[in-house]
Amino acid sequence: MRTFYSGPDAVVTDTHFVWRKPTVQIFAIDELTNVRLVRSGGVRPGLLVLLGLALAGAAVATTFQFGPLSAVPPVVAMVIVAVVGLRSKDGNWEIRAIHRRREVRLFTSADPRIFNQVTRALRRSLERRAQRHTYGLAAG
After folding, report:
1. Are the C-beta atoms of 4 and 12 separated by less than 8 Å?
2. Are the beta carbons of 10 and 107 closer than 8 angstroms?
3. What is the pTM of this model?
4. What is the bridge-based pairing of β-strands 10-13 and 16-19?
5. 115: phi > 0 → left, psi -120 to 50 → alpha, else beta; which?
6. SS (H, E, C) 77-130
7. In CATH terms, is domain 3-41+92-132 a member of 2.30.29.30?
8. 96-113: pLDDT as tens digits
9. CA torsion sign, 125 to 126 to 132 to 137?
10. Distance of CA 78 to CAs 42, 81, 95, 138, Å?
11. Domain residue spans of the chain
12. What confidence tens digit (pLDDT) does each residue in 65-96 have?
């Protein structure tokens, strides 16, 4: 058995993918299909733009109606929206797949370095699976 990645969060071998957190889940590599990366969480940039425009409009409207100090709450709200947008624009990345005819989340991480290492390991494992199923027609 060849190990492609072994860490506190996951283990990827040529036969199994083990996600250790939050609870241990084990997936056989040969039973995985439609493996893909999905971005989860975060705030959509379009939504931030619409919210920012609405708050800017509110700031202008209240300034004309009630004076300059009335624009402070909408301006503060715009700053909060911008900060939240900058912090959460990336969200988490997930690895999803079909396992035994069921949609599953194989792995997720907020740490891009760890996520990329696990993704690379899974890719190598899937490539090795493809080589095993060539029935000896390719070197491997």
Report:
1. yes
2. yes
3. 0.60
4. antiparallel
5. alpha
6. HHHHHHHHHHHHCCCEEEEEEEECCEEEEEEEECCHHHHHHHHHHHHHHHHHHH
7. yes
8. 999 999 999 999 988 889
9. negative
10. 17, 5, 33, 59
11. 3-41+92-132, 45-88
12. 666 655 566 656 655 655 555 554 456 789 99
What phi and psi values does residue 136 have, to the nearest 5 degrees? 75, 15
Is residue 25 within 8 A of residue 12, CB to CB? The reply is no
**Amino acid in the structure at residue 27:** F
pLDDT in the model for residue 31 = 92
SS3 content of the chain, % helix, strand, coil (to 5): 50, 30, 25
Whether a cis peptide bond, with omega within 30° of 0, leads into 22 is yes
Bridge partners of 52, per DSSP, are none
Closest by Cα among 72, 126, 70 to 95:
126
Contact 21, 135 (CB under 8 A): no
Task: Compute the distance between CA of residue 101 and CA of residue 69 in angstroms, rounded to an integer.
Answer: 59
Can you tell me whether residue 31 is helix, strand or coil?
helix
